[in-house]
Write a structure and sequence with these properties.
Largest sheet: 2 strands, antiparallel
Number of helices: 3
Distance between the termini: 52 Å
Order of helices and strands: HEHHE
Structural class: mainly alpha
Length: 84
């Protein structure tokens, strides 16, 4: 399913307008949702799937990578399970 969704998201043609500040890509989360709905409903066709996927765009903002807040996991002892 991931491969299908990534192929659909990659095949959608995104028209970049000259007045836009950023360039745009397809929102992958919405593309996955629409692909799942496509598989559930046999009456939909591929052309409408591509058109619906192309409606949901998100800008590519350079330098917006957030750092992950990684913390060490604490040990939880199981001594409360030992019968006295």
């Amino acid at each position: 399913m991931y491969n299908f969704c990534s192929r659909i998201a990659g095949a959608v043609v995104v028209k970049q307008k000259a007045e836009n500040i950023y360039s745009y890509l397809v929102n992958f989360k919405i593309a996955v949702y629409l692909c799942r709905e496509y598989y559930k409903n046999p009456e939909k066709d591929g052309k409408t799937l591509m058109e619906e996927t192309g409606r949901y765009l998100e800008p590519i903002r350079p330098g917006r990578a957030d750092e992950r807040n990684v913390r060490a996991k604490w040990f939880v002892g199981f001594t409360y399970r030992v019968a006295a």
